[in-house]
Each structure stands twice: as structure tokens, then as C-alpha cells.
């Protein structure tokens, strides 16, 4: 099975990515990406899923059955590196998204069973972190972390500058009923600046029964069912990715790969 979903030409609804639990061979995470022209409208039903709509780039007006969020959006490119506008949509809801400009929209989904209301996640609601040091640095926007209300979804976006690594030192979150880890499936929606760029991403386990290395290009999705999953950027190209995670317990607990954990220590970077 391939863990790389290549971006497609927009279909009749503007969809360029479509990852489901069935297509990914797992249980929780779904992901879609859309490119809409100004004035176009997208209608979605959440069904038994909760949704997090992330305005990756562009402006939009969003309606659900009980809420309206007109005129949202604040960046025309994710590489402006400011937190985005997003909208949380509960299960059994209807949503209408109208593009107020050309719009790149990510629709993250996972099982929903609560009674949370639809809500706007404004840039001021997004936690901003700078992680790492040396050649292992990234900027993180915590859109829907585990300390904010949702049933299953965890959503975060990460910026990694050319020549740096992220999701590193290698870490994993694939154990159920563990004190050290939670089981979380994960997707990476990649963007590059300039757009012809690519990165290298490896997905592998300790016993190497899974050991795949991929070169995601612009708007490709990497699926991580288990194991470690570091990303390395290529000189000349800055990288953005949107992560979606979900599992049976809505908590991000992970363990580092022992061989590379020293990169977190005072021994790195070397003098």
C-alpha cells in the first residue's frame, strides 16, 4: 500500500485530495482539500463525523445550521506564517462555504459523537510555538490541540525552513493502552514555496517491518498509520504542512526514537 496520496486536478467540487479511513486502511482520520474559485460554493454534510475547516489560503464565508461566520480569512498564502481562520463543525450538521476570493480549503474529519456547537477558531485562538534548535527548527500553529474542545480531532500546522528537519527527532504515537503513547493516525498535507519544491519524509517502525521513504510535492498528502515519520526539507524550498490526527483517546502522547533523542539535548548543535 502507498502512504502517499498525490494531488489531483480539481473535480466538479474543486476537490484535489480525498483520504478516508477506508482508503487509508485505518479507523479514524479523513482529509479532503479543495481549490475553489472566487464566488464558488461548497456544501458538505458532516454525518457521523466532526469537521475542522482550515482556510489554508484565501477568504470565505461559512454557514452551518445554527451559526454563520461571514467574511473570514486573513492570508492569501500559508507562507505568510500567520495563524489561519478555521471553523469547527459538529456531527450531524450541514455546512456551506462560499469563496470570497480564490480559496484553498482543508476539511479535516474524524468520528464525532458529542454535542459541541459549531464555532469559529480565530487566529487569536491559535497557540503559536517555536520548537527545536540548530537545523531542527519549526514554527507551529496549534489550531485544535488536545486542550481545546472536540471529540476526536487534533489539528496543527507546521512551517519548516529550507534545509531543516521537523517531526524530528523521530517520534511515534501508535500504541493503544500505553502509559507512554496514544494511538493516533496522522495525515500530512504538504505545501512548498516555491511550489515546484519537494521534501523527503520517511515512515518506519523499530523492527523495519514498515520502512518507506517518500518525496511529497505541493499539495500531496502523506499518511502515517504507525511508526516514526520525520520530514527533511530540501535547499531552496520552504515547507508547510497541515497535520490531522485522531484515535480512540484524544491526547497527543508520543515517544522519541532512542537513537536520535540526543538531538533534543544540550549536545546539539555541536560546537
TrEMBL record:
Please list the GO biological process terms of this entry: inositol catabolic process
Protein origin, superkingdom:
Bacteria
Record GO terms (molecular function): 5-deoxy-D-glucuronate isomerase activity; glucuronate isomerase activity
EC no. given is 5.3.1.30
Q: Which PANTHER family match?
A: 5-DEOXY-GLUCURONATE ISOMERASE
Q: Where are the transmembrane segments?
A: none
Q: What is this protein called?
A: 5-deoxy-glucuronate isomerase
Q: Which InterPro entries match?
A: Deoxy-glucuronate_isom_IolB, KduI/IolB_isomerase, RmlC-like_jellyroll, RmlC_Cupin_sf
* Pfam families per record: KduI
Q: Does the keyword DNA-binding apply?
A: no
Asked whether the UniProt record includes Isomerase among its keywords, one would answer yes
Species: Candidatus Pantoea deserta
Q: Which UniProt keywords apply?
A: Isomerase
Tell me the classification of the organism that encodes this protein.
Answer: Bacteria, Pseudomonadati, Pseudomonadota, Gammaproteobacteria, Enterobacterales
